[in-house]
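Comment on the following before class.
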Amino acid sequence: MNFKPIIWTYRPRRNGQCSVKIYGQKKYFNTDILIDPKFWDDAKGKVRSIHPHHAQINAIIQKKIVELERAFLSGQELPTKKNSKTKTETPPAVPSICQFIQAYIDETAKGEHDISPGTIKHYQSLQMRLNQFAEHRGKAVEFADINQTWYGDFWQFLHTNFQIQKAGGFSKHIKVLKKFMSEAQRRGLHNNSAHRETDFKVHQTKGQKIYLTEQEVEKIECLDLSTMPWMEAERDRWLMCYYFLLRYQDAQDHIGQVNFFQSQGKTFFRYDANKTGIPATIPVSPRAMELLKKYNYKLLQTTNQEANRKIKMIASMAGINDAVQENGVHGPKCNFVRTHTARRSAATNLAMQGVPLDFIAKLGGWNKLETLKKYLLSSGLDVAIVAANYDFFK
C-alpha cells in the first residue's frame, strides 16, 4: 500500500496552476488543491516551504492520504471521481498583503531569507500602516486592491493621520510594498501589475535634510535639563549617537561595557552595524566617556518615535529655531531634528573639519562612499566659511 502525492501538469489552468492528486493502487485521487508547479517538490511529494501556506496545504494533503489508507484497509471502494454531493476541502484562500508579509517574516526567522533585522523592521512598519489603513476602510488590503486610486488614498490617510511626507516615510512604505507585490506575483498569488506602472512610484528626496552644526550641538549639550531627568536622558542618548556616529537602534543594542576596549592608552568603541553588518571602531572622546559612566554604559530603552518627539522639544528649548526647509517643507529647524540627525550631523561636521571620507566611512560603518556622501549636508555657505581660512583665500 503506497499513496503518493503528485502534481498533475497535463492540464494546467490558464493561470498556470495545476491540480495536486494522490496516486495509489493504480488510480489517481483528487485533492481539490491547485498550485503553481514551481512550489511543488517532486522528490518529497509536498509543497515547498517558499509557499506562504505550505504547512496548511501539506496538512490537507496528508489528511487525504490517511483517509485513503483507512478506506483501503477497511475494504471500502476508493472513489476516483469527485462526488458533487460530497463536501470537499476548500483550496487555501489567497492571503491578504499583511498576511503575506507576516509569512515572509516567518520564513526569514526560519533562515529561508538572508535579511537584516533593520529590513525586517521596515516590513513590520508597512504591515502596521496597512493594518491601520485596513481598519480605517473596514476591510483587509488585498493584492487586487492595489492601483493608482488606492495609492492616492493610502498616501492621504498616512499624511492626514500621521503627518507622513511623500518623499519620506510614504516612499519607504511604497518601496517595500512594491517588493512584496513583486514577490507575491512571482509566487503566483496574484496577477496585478499596477505596482509596476510609472505613476505608482517612490518619490525621491528633493533638496537636503538638515544637520546640526558643531555650535548647535553645543547648544543642546549645554542645555540645563536637570529638573527634567526624562528629557536629560533623551538628550544624552542623542549626544552619544552623535559622538559615536550611531543609528538609533545600534545605540539601543550595542552601547554596553562589553563593546568598549583599551588600546595604546585610549578607549575605543567597537560594534557591528545592525543594518549592514559592517564592523565599526571609533575613539571615545572625554565627553562621551563622561556620559557612559553617568549611565553605567546602559541607555534607557524606548521607541524611536518617542525619542524623535522628545529631541524636537529639546532642540526647540536649545534655541535651534532658525527658519529652514526640508524636502520642500518649511518650518523652524527644531521641527526637523530626529534621532538620525545625530549620525548625519557627526558625519557632516567631521567632513567639514577635513577628515577624509574613507576615514569617516570606517568610523561610522558605511560600506559605500556614495552612501556616505548623502550624509554630507553642509550648505555652500558652510563650506565657504571654512574655506575662508585656507591660505588660498587670504
